[in-house]
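I am still getting used to backbone structure tokens and would like to learn alongside you. Please make up or recall a protein chain and show it to me in full. Would you write everything just below, so we can both look at the same thing?
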Amino acid sequence: MEQWTATATDLGMEAWFGPEGRFRKVLPGFEFRPGQLQMAQIVARGLAEGRRVIVEAGTGIGKTLAYLVPAVLSGRPVLVATGTIALQEQLFRKDAPLLGRADLSVSATVLKGRSHYLCLWKWNRWRQAPPLALSDPALYGRLQEWVRRTTTGDRAECDALPEDHPLWPDLTADVRTCMGPRCAFFRDCYLYEARRRAERAQVVIVNHHLLLADARLRARDARLLPDIPHLVVDEAHMLEETAVSALTLTLSWADFYRLLQELETSIQVAERMSDATLKQWQTYQKRIYAEARALFEQDLTGPNLRPGAGLTERVPWSEVRRRHPQLSRCLTRLKEILQALMAWVQGLPLPAEERDQFSLWASELATLCDIFQAEEDTGDDLIRYAEPFPTHESRWSLCATPLQVGPLLAEWLWPRFRSVVLTSATLTYRGRLDFVADRLGLVPSGAEDRETEGTLTTLSIPSPFRWDRQTRLWIPPDMPDPQDPAFMPELQRRTEALIRLVGGGTLVLCTSLQTMQAVAAYLEERLPWKVYRQGHLPRRLLMERFQTDVSSVLVATASFWQGFDVPGEALRCVIIDKLPFEVPSDPVVQARIESIRRTGRDPFYVYQLPKAITLLRQGLGRLIRTQTDMGLMALMDSRVWRRPYGRVILRELRPIPIVRTWEALEQWWRESSAGAG
């Protein structure tokens, strides 16, 4: 791993990003930022020399243009993967057009996962099933109108149904029902037309999930994305968790329900079904539903559960099997029924491509039943566990997560690209990028990888923001320990005081749903301003309303720690309840801790603490988004001052100015607000 230094060959980027560069002349408000120029230079060299490059670009660097410009100027097709659909749209609609204003033409397109596109085969079947299509005539009419006018089939365009409407799975493309070129609607397929546009574009913008789904399929000689030799991964700090999600195998009630519902619709629409066939079908339905209910409706009780309340957190599957041995027998019977169904489907009077697709689907579910029947010591490095997944028909689901995703990425993802650039505002730990490089499988692991040594280049560019003038971070040393019953009342009281000090415009980030609910309920009763909480409205709508009402408060968890971008007056304060450590009793975390411990290393300092610091920096990073933003930050966790690891955290939060007392925080805010006014 080598550090980067500029050479004469990188000076071409100065014509675009330099003090007298093209962007300074054509983009109003564009400022010369040495860090942005430096990043553009390293990206340009990485693309030209076939390197793997990791760049931590502090908030305010302007990293998007710093990788888009050299990517376009390279003249080679480039794949850009970012963390979310929203960021894909921002890249395509806001950032890429800036290049055109500088007379740099770019052919760019957005490609999403198949579930974002209308499936014409499903739409046609849905229209032919009157009980489904006509149950809500008004909705049916709105959908028909959208289908008539859409040219992309992208469900984000459809105002008739919100993005989280339960009807979408009945209408959108699905890997288990998609027949590809054998489908009668293939020529007009929106998904495949989007893929054809991607084949022709120079810059293809995808998200991490689609990138990883493609990598997984390529291991089976299939693909979702064009064969593009160069990759840029934006928001790279999110990639490991996305890989964990993408590579986790799941088995749930919904899997069996979807199979039976899709097959039921095909049988309804088809003609020439004999009474004997329909009777057999009813038998298969009853048997599969009965076994799936027996499996997923079981009330699992044990040491990690509240008696009578069902599953409340992840539990190792080995423990569940030991306490409930009948569940293994359910899996065996489900596998046998699915295997029989595979053969029976082939005799149905359906198109051959449909029969094959349903047989393959049943086969995949049977294979999953086998995986969860396997013993823990099979050597497949999968962590098996039961996870809460409450629905009307289910209490939990089964999951199998890879112990480490780095080796899988090293095998499936990175080798297919000639050059790779990874960037984010939060990648370093203790001033180095080794942690992220190791976790993502970018560090050579053996003699067979020696040819890649020296091709991994790293660079960390500090934020240009003037932290001493723009913010203060309050970490009160007298807060009770988070495990102390006195913590919640004190958290609520001090959160209210902070919000009143800044006059609203506050984002409260919580590490658990329980804390979020308790804090939100407390604030709703006491504050004169509107209090929003995550889950009550779609994420996009919450962001819009929060940004419009500059005195409102948003209390959130999980997804709002990252990708929440509200610059300006609407966000004046960010409060975090406590350090975001992963739950050590979680089966996945526990297995990774034990794996690191077996190598003789301390899992807390090489895994748990770095992950918590990265997420903490992301959460605090929601506040200062531009050179003119100003506001307060607070971390209500006094362990920073009392525990040995606190020194590491304080060092990693530099150069954010930290205060210990309420008086110092209040004085700075009042003086800064008066000066700004």
Q: What stands out?
A: Confidence is low (pLDDT under 50) at residues 305-309, 446-453. The CA atoms of residues 553 and 613 lie 25 Å apart. The longest strand covers residues 382-388. The chain has 27 helices and 19 strands.
